[in-house]
Amino acid sequence: MQREQWGSRFGFIMAAAGSAVGLGNIWKFPYLAGSEGGGAFLLLYLVIMVTIGVSVMMAEIAIGRAAKLNPVGAFKVVGGRRWIPVGVLGLVTSIVLLSFYSVVGGWTIAYLLKTFTGAIGSGSAEVLAGQFGDLVGSPLEPIIYHGLFMVLTILIVLLGVTSGIERSVKALMPLLFLLLLVLVIRSVTLPGAWEGVEYFLMPDLSQVNMGMVQAALGQAFFSLSLGMGAMITYGSYLPGDTNIRSSSIWVISLDFLVAFLAGLLVLPAVFAFSMDPGAGPGLTFITLPAVFGAMPLGMVFQAVFFAMLLIAALTSSISLLAIPVAYFSETFGIGRKPASLGVGLVIFAIGVPCSLSLGIWGNVVFFGMSFFDFLSYLVDKFFLPIGGILTALCAGWAAYGKVSRELENQGELPFAYLGLWRVVVRFIAPLAIIWVMIAGFAS
Ligand code: PHE
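# phenylalanine complex -> structure
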């Protein structure tokens, strides 16, 4: 069977940027920047993105294109049999990550619908906190929304790489930017917003500390969808003449831009209404609705916001589902449709106890955490960093010949740049991630 390819470079960049731009940018980045010292965090994050981030992204895309296979097959082809476990780790990570990512994706559907019905709106932060707790803790409701989110994800993936994924991201990503711009303009023109803009943009370098560096590196990997084969899978559909370096730079710039704009959307609005920028994960579902509730036409902006969040989550979840779907259809010769349905159903099933663990199953704990927190801890602290280290090492050492050939592609990558890239994937990226892991456990 002919392997599918992206129809255009634009389509690939939108798909890869769609994977990268997700809940990580809009939900997590602003609250990290809010609690980790604003401008200093932003600067550090940018530095990590353009050094380690771009190098590992180029490595993943090149591995995928060299092998033209799912991550398990790709690591075997470029690195040899002993690298297969790295692909398997990516496969497992994609399934586990999507199972709880989709639960949060479901909340965004719930908030969008509840904005239209008026169920969530114009409340104080206390009321909104109660409503959020009620939603995530109730036994049935969030599971229905989680199911709905998985249905949307499955539908796009089963239609195929070009007619499903590429077609949807080409429409959704520009829409996302448009909605985001509307919101940023609203936010920075609020009276009193300037203090938030300053907090976000003025780096106070005396604030930089090890904890901040760790948070920035972990966030960069998660946000760029690295360390688990998503970019390998998307890279495997990339035509041979597309420039990997410039495409990676596009994806990273777009991902950074959305995180930056999300910070400009959230922090000034939060400052304008004298709320707490360090509110943590509740910033999106509690603080922001309180802000919307207090501004003129707030419900319109709230609907725009949750629509944008849903798009961001969906274009990421399809890249997660694409990994096991590629694996099962290529390894066992299953069609794309049954593979999408089958894997999607399994992921939905794993998400059910995740959701329940925030409510009625809250007393079942794993290492002192709810099932939801436990899975997210596993992915954040083990699967992604270990996957990232091994991917960089594979590209820099075992698969260097094949990977560098993809990158050099008709002299696209200047020699000095290739040398720099090699130092980063061979030494700097693995050591930096190991250091982050060790320091993370020590603290
Ligand atoms: N990058 C996505 C986000 O920021 C999450 C993600 C990670 C998606 C890994 C796919 C693969 O939300």
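# post-check
The CA atoms of residues 292 and 298 lie 4 Å apart.
The longest helix spans residues 298-332.
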